[in-house]
Amino acid sequence: MRKYLEILSSLFVIVFLSGCWDSEEIENRAFIRGSSIDLAEQTTKDNPQLTLTQQLIVPAAIGTATTGGGEQPAFRNLALSGESLMHINNEISKRANRTLYAHHLEVLLFSEDVVKQPDLFEKLLDLFTREQQNRRSVLVAVTKEKASSLLDIEPEHIKVPSQYISELLDNKKSAEVSPPLRLGDLHEKLFANVSFVIPYLAIVDDKSIENSGVAVFNTNERAVIGTLDGPLTMGRNFMTGDMEAGNMRISIQDAKANIMIANVQSSLKLTNKDKNNLTFEIDVNISGVISETNSKINPHTHLDLYAKGLEKEVKKLVDKTITKAQTDLKTDIFKFNIYLYGHHYKLWESLKDEWDTGANYFANSKINVTVNANIEMSGNTQFTTQKEKGS
Amino acid sequence: MKRYARSQNKKKNATTPKHNASFQIKIGTNLDENVDSVKKMLDEPDDLIVRELSIGTDHQKAAIVYIKGMVDHKLVQDNILKTILEKEPEADIDLSDYFYQEIIAISDIKKVKTLDDVSLAILSGSTALYIDQTDTVLLMGTAGGEHRAIEEPQSERLIRGPRAGFIENIGTNVSLIRQDIKDPNLRFKTHEIGRRSKQKLVVSYIDGIVNPDLVQEINRRLQSIDTEYAVGSGEVEHWIQDSFLSPFPQLGDTERPDRAVDALLKGKVVILVDGTPFVLIAPMTLVETLHSLEDNSQRWIVGTSLRLLRFLSAFIAIFLPSVYIALISFHPEMLPAKLLFSIAASREGVPFPAFIEAMLMAITFEILHEAGVRLPKIIGATIGIVGGLVIGESAVSAGIVSPFLVIITALTAIASFATPQYSMAISFRLIRFTFMIAAATLGLYGIILVYIMINIHLVNLKSFGVPYSTPFGPLLLKDWKEMIIRAPIMMLTKRPSYLKTMDKTKRDPSNE
Amino acid sequence: MNKLKQSNETIQDLDIMIAIPSVVIAIGFLYMPRVLAEPTIGLDAIYTILLGGVITILLTWLGVSLAIHFPGQSFVTYASKLVSKPIAVALALLFALHGILITCFEVRAIAEISHLYLFNRTPIEVIGLAFLLVVIYAVAGSRVAIFRLNALFFPVILVAIFILAVFSLGFTDATNAYPFFQTDLNGYSFATLRSISTIGGFGVFGYVLFYVSLIRSPKKTPKMAMYGVILVILLHLIIFTMTLLVFGNITTSNLMFPVIELARAIELPGGFFNRFDSLFFVVWTMAIFNTTVMTYDLAVIVFQSVFKNAKKEKLVFLLAPIIFFISGLPKNTYELDYSGRMLSYFGITLATGVTLLLFVLHKVRGVK
C-alpha cells in the first residue's frame, strides 16, 4: 500500500508543480540599480507631483571578459512623473521591455526640495520598506541638485553612475560626511521618532559628484529642515564619534600644520537632569598624527604643542556646530535622543514630544564639550628646517 | 517487496531436468552404458573428454570424463592419469576403494552413485572416474581452467591500498578473504542459485561479531531467489533488497577484498557470487556509500577532510544544476550584483530558458558518459575530447548555452565522480534530474520540497533492518566518529553500534 | 531479524529531545521577536523568555514524568484509567482537533510567507498543496521515520540559526540594548504569556503525553525532554537578542517577520549568495515541515486509538482534504494571525489543563 502511495504522491507533486508561474529568466529582467525622486515641474502646493527616475542596467554593456562590453552605455534611465511612486513605477513598466526588478537597488536619491516637503519623505519611504524587493542595505542620500541629474554623471572608471554613487557614499576616508545611511537604519530612525542626518551629495562637474555635509531631518517637522556644510559635519562627527579618519588644519604659534586624525572617541553624559536645564557633558578624545607642518618648531619634541593646537581648533569647530544646531536648525543632530532613550528612559518619555520642536528642550540645553587631543607621532620626518642645537 | 519475497519462497528451486529418459538415472555396472548416459545427458558436446583406459594386469576397463577448459589440465594429467596408469593393482580388490584410498593424489574426492551428481560435478569442473563393473563413480575436484589473474580493481582505485581485486572465480575470491582474516570464526556458507546456471553463492561473515538475526534474514532472502541465471551480483542484489522502488542501492558492492574484509570486521555480511568480481555488502547506509578505504589509510585529519569533501561533492552533484536553474529563473536576488550582471550578460542571446539549457547539457553529458564507458579505452579518450572541447566550446560560441552553464555542468560531472560507489553515483545523477524539474517549476521552494521528499524516503528505507539514514536518523552520535568523520584510530574502539553486533568492541578485552 | 529491526523501530529518549525543539520551532519563531518586543521596552523580554521558559519546562516535565509510567500504552488507554474512558476520548479528540488546526495553520502560513518572500504570482493554494502533499507522504510512512526526519532536519535548522546569529553580529548596535528594566508589570505579564505561547509552540508541548508513552523503555526521558525545552529557550534568547540588537525594539515591533528581516539584513561574505533570507526561508521550510508532520501525526495517533480498526493510510487520506479546506478559510493575513493567536490560547489551555489534571489524578489515585 505504502509503495503505491509513494508513487502516487510523487506523481501528484510533479503534476501540481508544473505551474512555473513565477519563472522569469534572468535576461528578461531589468535590474534597477539606482532610483531618484524629484519634484516634478507641475507641482502645486497641496498636490506634489513627483518624478521617479529608475536606472536600469544594460548587462551586455557591462560586459564580461569574453564579450568585452563595447561603446554603448551600461545603463538606461527611465523617468516619469506622477502622483504616487507605485503609479509611476507601473507607467515605467510600460516603457521597459523587461520586467522591472528592484532587488539589486543600490542607491536611493532624494532631491533636497522633495525631502523639505513635510511628511512627503516618510510617505515615499514607506513604499521602499513595505515592498519585499528592497534590501535594507540600500543607501539613501539627499542631493542638492535634481536627483535625476546625478544618475547621469558617468565617471571614466565606472560604467554605472549608481555604482559610483554607492561607492562614494561608502567611502569613509573623509570626516566631513555622514556615515552611510542604509534604508534599514532610516526606517528604524523614523519609527523611533528621532532626528537624524542624511548624506548630502552635490554635483561638481559632469564627471564627478561630491559627498560633503549632511541634510538634517527633524522628526517633529517630518522633513529635512536644513543642511550642515562639510566642516560643521566634521564638528558633529567629533561629538558623536562617527569618524574613522580625517584631516584637521591647525595653527600653532608661527605657522599652519595639518593633523591626520587616527581615532576619535566621544563619551556623552547627562549631568543635570532638570528638564529645563539639561546639561550634557561630552568628552572627545582624539588621537592623530602630524601629516604636514611648516612650523620651525621641532614637532618631535613639541608634540603637546600640536595637541593643544588641535584641541583649540576642534573646540572652536564643535562650538560652532552646537550653535548652528541649537539656534539655527533647532534640531538634535548629536544623537542625544538615542542616548536619552537608552539611559534616561523616563526623562525621555516626558520630554520627547517637545525635544526639538515647540518648547525645544534640546535648543535650551547646555552642552559642554571637553576636547582631549593626543598626537601619537610626528610623522616619518623629524625636523623641518632647523638643525637641533646642542644647547 | 516482502510480499514478493514471500511468494517466491513457495516455489523452491525445482531442479528436475526435463530430458527424455533414454539414459539411466542410476549408474549401472556397465562402463560403456554409463559413459553413454553421461554423454547423452550432456548432448555429446565437443569439449567433453572421455579418456578410456585399462588398468592393471587384468586390463580392467575404466574411463575418466571431464570437460576441457573447466579443469586444471596439469592436475588431471599428473595426479590422476599418471598415477592410475603407473599402478598395477592386485586382482580382486574393490578398485574404487583402492583408487579412493591409495592412488589418486587429489584431496577433494568423493564417491557418488547417481548420474545427476556426476553430470553436475562434471559441469562444475570435476573429473569423473568410471570403473567397469562398479556402480560407484569417483569425482575428483579438479576445477580450474581459465581464469583471470588477480589484478588491480578497475572500478575502485585507491592511491594507498592493496592492488588486489576480486576476480570472477569464487574460489579465488574466498581465498582472498581468507588470506586477510585468519580467524577461525570466519564463516562461508554456500548457497546455490540459478535454476540452470547453478552458480555458487557464498555468504560470508564472522561468527561472534555479526548479528545472527542479520545472517538469518539474509539466508531467508537468498532462499527466495528464483532465477535461471543471476547476472552477476547485481541480480542477487535486486532479489534480496528491501525496496525495489528506491533509487538508492541498498547493498554495497565492491571489487576490493580489503573493503570486504573491512565490512566483515564491522559486523556486516559479505555475499560472493560466482562469475562476478563484485561482492555484495549488507547492510548498507547512505553515508557509507561515500566512504572510501583511503580514509583509513590516510592520517585522520586528511581522512576526515577527504570524507567531508566527498560529502560536499555529493551535494554539488545533486544540487548544483537545479540551484542554477532556480537562481536564474526564480531568485536572481540571491546573486550578488556583479555576478548577476555578468551571468545576465552571458545569457543575453541564449535562446532557451535556463531549464531547457541545463537539461540539454546534462543529457548531453550523460550520453557522453555512457558512450565513453562502452568504448575501448583508446577511443574513450577521444570521446572526452569531443565532449569537452567540441560540444562545450562550440555550444558556447554558437550561443546555445552560456559559458556559466558549461562550468556548472563540468563541476557537477566531476563532483559526481567523486562518489566512490559507482551504483550510488548513478543514483545521484538520476536524482539530479528530479531536482532540476522541481527547480524549474517552483524554484528553491520546489528544490526543498523534493529534498524533503527524498529524506522522507530515506528515513523509511531500510537495508536489512538498518535504517538507511543512519547515523543521522536515528541519531547515533557515537557512530559519527567513524561514519561522518574519521576520528583518530585510538578513538575508534567500538564497532558501529547501528549494526547491533555481538562483539561490540574492537579492542582486545584483556587490554582494557 | 526481530532484534535488529525492533531496536531500530522504537522511539528512544534522544528522539524526544530532538523532537521537542523541532516541533516547537516553526512559524511562530519567525515573528517571535515582534510579539515579544511589542509589550516590552528594550531587551526586557529576555526575562520573560526565561520565566516563560521555566514554566514550560515545568509543564513539559510534568507531562513526561506522567507518561513514562505507562510505557507502550496509548494516551487513551492510560488516560482512561485516570479519568473515565469517555473523558479520555474527549480529551484526546480535543488534542486531535488542535493537531489538525495547527497543521492547517502551518500549511497556510508557509504558503503566505513564501508568497511574501519567494513568489509573486504562484497561487497560494498551489504552494500550500505542494507542501501538504509532502507532509502526507511523510505521515503515511512509519512513525519512527518521522522522528528520524526530525533528527535529520534539526541540525540543519540549528546551523541556519547559528549562521544567522553569527553574521548578524556585525550589524548589531549596542545602543539598541538600552534601556533596561523600563517595562511595566502589565507589559511583563503579557510578554510572559506570549513567551509561554511561543516556547510551548502553541501548546504542542502537550503532545509529549502522546509520544512519550510510545517509548518502550524510558530511562532518562524527563531529563531529555527538559534538555529539549532548554534548547528551545536558548534559541529564542539568541535570536531575540540578535534581532533586537540589530533593529532596536521599536523597529522590531513593526516588522512582520523580524527573523526573516534579520536574514535580509545580513550579507554573507564571499559573494556567492547575496541574500540570506531566501536561503534561510528555504531551510526554515524544513522546520515548519517537521512541526506540521508531527501535529498531523498526532491527529492520526488519536484517531488510531479511538477507531481501532481504521488503517493508518486511510486516516491520513481522509484528514488531508479537511486540512486543505480549513487552511483555505482565513481570508487574509490578519485573520490568519488572529486564528494563530486563538489556536495558541486553545493549545496552551488544553495542554496545561490536561497535563495538570492527569498528573494530579495520577498522584492521588496512584494508578499503575
UniProtKB/TrEMBL annotation, chain B:
Q: GO CC terms on record?
A: plasma membrane
Name of the protein in its database record: Spore germination protein
Q: Is Manganese included in the keywords of this UniProt record?
A: no
Report the principal subcellular site.
membrane
Membrane topology value: Multi-pass membrane protein
Record-linked InterPro entries: Spore_Ger, UPF0353/GerABKA_families
What residue ranges are annotated as transmembrane?
308-330, 350-368, 375-392, 398-418, 430-454
The answer on whether this UniProt entry bears the keyword Hydrolase reads no
Similarity comment: family membership: Belongs to the GerABKA family.
Keywords, in A-Z order: Membrane, Transmembrane, Transmembrane helix
Cellular compartment(s): Cell membrane; Membrane
Q: What GO terms in the biological process aspect are recorded for it?
A: spore germination
Top-level division of the source organism's lineage: Bacteria
TrEMBL record, chain C:
A Pfam family of this chain:
Spore_permease
Entry's transmembrane regions: 12-33, 45-68, 89-111, 123-140, 152-171, 191-212, 224-247, 279-303, 315-330, 342-361
Q: Name one GO cellular component term.
A: membrane
Q: Where in the cell is it found?
A: Membrane
Q: Which InterPro entries does the entry mention?
A: Spore_GerAB
| GO biological process, any | spore germination
Q: What topology in the membrane does the UniProt record assign? A: Multi-pass membrane protein
Keyword list (alphabetical) reads: Germination, Membrane, Transmembrane, Transmembrane helix, Transport
- In terms of domain of life, where is this protein from? Bacteria
Question: Its family?
Answer: Belongs to the amino acid-polyamine-organocation (APC) superfamily. Spore germination protein (SGP) (TC 2.A.3.9) family.
Name the record gives this protein: Spore germination protein
Q: Which organism is it from?
A: Aquibacillus koreensis
Q: Print the organism lineage.
A: Bacteria, Bacillati, Bacillota, Bacilli, Bacillales
